[in-house]
Each structure stands twice: as structure tokens, then as C-alpha cells.
């Protein structure tokens, strides 16, 4: 395991900025997804506490942490579902503006709650979402996305008729329907059987195509490490550790994770 660029508390923003490819036309690097001083408070409770990050195209950040660490709140702010109490989020150098919806075309979000319309079929859920984005090639996209997540034979089934794992895969197809640059995944493996998890793993592996930027929140250490180019451990709202994990270190990462969470590292 390597802390980010030499010391455990160095911010991902520093590391990503040094390693990301330069932007075209100038000499400066513009991260695909960045956050500065991100804070989210719920009354007296500070769920996210001064998080900074900067991720380039092709990077896959997995965020681990105990329940209540603020991981879902962080993801909500990165995707525009929650307004930060303080701080800012930028996509390709442009501030995330809640009153200007254009940025949403660049972001795909998979929540562990799914947010599907239960009485619409799998195909109708995707068609409704595609129309919101003004996609004009849904006759091609919808069958392709359903086939990729193993739901081609369930296209005419209502979402409420699908198993939990199938609904999760349908929600992933919806999140990727508009081919976003930034993909945010909140506990995607929750409640999946091994077969459904294998399908999800294959689809997520395809997101490491060198173009997309992915942030995944998960409790599943094995799955989270398998895809990550960077790792963060969030504790009490902060990134308590950031770095990368080599394949040789994955077996020992669980011990390291518990040391960080319990304040021994």
C-alpha cells in the first residue's frame, strides 16, 4: 500500500494534478472531477468535513469507511443531489451550478436505493430517462444497455417484478444510458448474489476505459480494491488515508483499514 505521493495525508488533488494528462491548448491540467473544502452539515452533525479531491480521466477512486463516515453525503454532493454547506465541486473546470442543468449530461449516478419507477417496465424506465436527456438514438441504446447488464429477456417486466439484483443492474444501465464522463456509484454490490455481482463487476471494469472518471463508495473491500486506481478511507467525514494499493498488498489492506478506522494508523 502506498500513501498518496509519499505521505498519508497528502491530498488526492495534489497527486492527481501531478499525474493527470495535460489539458489541450494550455499548459495546465484540468481535472475531470474536483472538489475543494467540501463540507456538509446536518444541524450540529458534520457529515463531510473539508474534503478535497481532483480526479483525471481514467481514474477510479474507491472510498471505504464505516457507517456514518459521510461517504454517501460526499457522493451526493459530487453528483449534485446535495448542496454543500461549504466548498465547491467542479466538472471539467466548470463549477457545478444547480440552476444550470447542462452539467448533468456528464454525470451518471447509481444509488443503492435505485430510484426506479416500479410500475414502468425495464425498457420504459430507460426510455423515460433517455428522453429527459434528449437522447435521439434510444432504439439502439436501450437494447444495448439492457443486454450488457443481462436484462434483455426482462425488458418488458415491470421494475417491481424484478429481483433486487436485477433492479440494481437496471439502475446501472440507466446511469450509463447517456454515456457520462463521470460515474458515481453508491454501494453497488449491496444485496447482490454472486451471479449478479459478477455481471456488475464486468460492467464496472469496462468503465476503466481511460476516459471516464469513477468514484465508488462500498463496504466490499475485495471488489472495491479490484477496480481502484486510488483508494481513500473516510472516517468522521474526513479522508483519514489516501493512496494506492498494489495487488500484492490487497490481502493486508483489511488490517490496514481497521487500523485507520480505529485510529492506530
Which percent range describes the beta-strand content?
Answer: 15-25%
Strand segment count:
11
Provide the CATH top-level class: Alpha Beta
Rg over CA atoms, rounded to whole Å, is 18 Å
Instruction: Name the CATH homologous superfamily.
Output: P-loop containing nucleotide triphosphate hydrolases
SSE series: EHEEEHEEEHHHEHEHEEH
The appropriate CATH architecture is: 3-Layer(aba) Sandwich
Portion of residues within helices: 25-40%
What would you say this structure looks like, in words?
Helix 4 crosses helix 5. The protein has a seven-stranded mixed sheet with strand order 1-11-10-4-9-8-7, with helices on both faces. It has helices at residues 12-19, 71-78, 122-132, 138-148, 164-176, 194-206, 221-227, 250-261, and strands at residues 2-3, 33-42, 45-55, 60-64, 86-91, 94-95, 107-110, 182-186, 213-217, 230-235, 238-244. It contains eight helices and eleven strands. 31% of the residues lie in helices and 24% in strands. By secondary structure, it is of the alpha/beta class. The chain has a single domain (2-261), classed as Rossmann fold (3-Layer(aba) Sandwich). The two termini are 13 Å apart. Mean pLDDT is 87; it is low at 5-27.
